[in-house]
Structures are given as C-alpha cells and as structure tokens.
Amino acid sequence: MRLDDHNVVITAAGRDFGRALAITLADLGARVFLSARTLAAAERTRDDIRSRGTGKVHAFACDLTDPASISDFAHQVAAHTDHIDVLVNNAARYLEGEDLLAVSDQDVIDTLASGATGTILATKNFLPLLLRSVKPDIITMISTAGLPGHARSTAHDAFYSAKNAQAGFTEILSKRLRPQGVRVISLYPPDFDNADPLTPDWHTTPRGPKDPLTSQSLIDCILFAISQPRDCFIKAFHFEEPS
What we know:
The chain is an alpha/beta fold. The chain has one domain (about 5-240): NAD(P)-binding Rossmann-like Domain (Rossmann fold). It has seven helices and seven strands; from the N terminus they run βαβαβαβαβαβααβ. It has helices at about 15-25, 40-50, 65-80, 105-130, 155-175, 200-205, 215-225; strands spanning about 5-10, 30-35, 55-60, 85-90, 135-140, 185-190, 235-240. The model has no long low-confidence stretch (mean pLDDT about 95). It comes from Nonomuraea purpurea.
C-alpha cells in the first residue's frame, strides 16, 4: 500500500521500533512527524529518511514525562498541518528487574510517566488534529506485559503497571471514540527482533514459524489495520509467545 495521503505522528522515533516504523512509513509516502526525547536523536532519524529521497519528514523533541513538552510537540505539529491521520503511541520507558526495591523512586516515576501519563497526554493533545481527519487511527504499542496475568517478562513492576495502564486507557478509548470514527488499535507483542531498516539485517532477519517476532511483522500489522475500510475496527493484535 501507499501512504501518500497520510500524516503520521510517531513518538520515540529516535531509535529501535519507532525509528524503523518512521523510515518504513516515509518510504511508503507518508508525511511523518517524529519525536524523540532529544531533538538530536529525532533529527538523526529525520536526516536518514531524507537521505533516501523523501522530504516529507519533520523532527521534534518530546519528553513524555513532561506535560509541557507534550503540549509543545502537538502545537509545533499543528503549525505544519491542519490534521493528522495516524498517531502512533510508541514511547514508553523500559525498566528491568524483578525486585521492587532494586530501583529508585525516580525510576518508578519516570517509567509510569512516560508509558502511562505520557500516552494519555499525547493522545489528548493530538486528538483535535485527529478529529479533523477523515481516516483517524490511534496506534498504541503496548506489550504482553499489559495482559492480565502475564508474568513471563523480567521487566520491573513499574513497567508492568505502565503497560496495564495503557491497556486500560486504550480499551475505554476505543469504545468512546468509535462514534466519532476514530479507530483505536493496540498491539501486544512479546520481545521481538528489531533490525534497523538501513542495515543488511532488515532483509536477512529470519521470519519463520520458529523464529521470534520481528519489527517488520509488527509494521505489517499496523499497515494492515490502517488500510482497512472504515467500518473495520480492529481493536488489538495479540501474538503467541515463543514456547
């Protein structure tokens, strides 16, 4: 599919999955508004996209632990366009460790702020631009850690809490925004292989039935969801974990 008529906002696009998604969507013709915690990180992804021959990309700093930074990001995007079609809530700080006492209070605060509060405030600030689109979609990268009863990850309790908060938020948001035509789509991947699109690994990462999930497959799921007719509301993608 082509995305020449799509304006897309992606948080945490300076590295890893957000970067891979930004590069892929820009290659497909989307106009991408990407953010990272630092402007330098966002600009690196922007410059790599431009080097591939597309100029429809803008880079911004956005710290999802800071409400003023989120608001400023949305206002800057609004200065470039009167609507956005897709918001990708990708940012959430990962915190490792199965011992509640092993991390600082500030680590707990930042993890919850970026994943939970940050997702809610980013959605709130960009919703007016989404409501001006004829094809608005909100994509949220959650995790199997956001599923009830999940206990297989070695992530910290605060990360689990942030992901469960995202899951609860998107669940109710899907129902409340449907009358306005906004689709709210959540992805619940386990740990996955995340190759960079500008490296050879992007083309050689195995994608067989016994291999780990890949970022390419997650991007394919997103493309599938947003390409469906507007009567098709895919609420979530759930994935089998490796045995």
